[in-house]
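Hi, here's the filled form for the chain we discussed.

Project: internal
Contact: R.S.
Residues: 143
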Amino acid sequence: MRLDDLRYYFSVAGLVVASAGFYAMIFMGGMRQLFGIEEPLFWVFFWMTFLVFAIFGLVYYVPRLRNAYRGERVEDKYYSLRAVWIQIVVVSMVATYIFAPYFKKNDLLAGISDFIIAGGSFLFFVGLFCYLSFYQRSFRQRK
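And the returned structure, exactly as it came back:
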């Protein structure tokens, strides 16, 4: 193994492990909202999820990130528009379900119906994910 490869693996492995921790916390936060997991069991599941995400990231994504690390163009992946819309709707529903208790605890939204809060937060997340999926991609391709 060359010194450049070793330097690359050490620098990118830290990013992948940190991302695995972030995504494991988001995933387990959703699981806690759905299933009401108690504190000791939560941390056991968190570390198991973290290890799965970290191992998957280290095995599959570290080799794929080499072009991005060098500043080159990363390989393009093309998805069907239907699949993208299904992902946007599903992720928006999950985000609405996860964040709904926080919106209901807000004093500013205390007098508003739960259906209006859920619909508004769903539309907010759909708009956010549409912006991140469509507008950002077309903006990057103009360069």
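Let me know if anything looks off before we file it.
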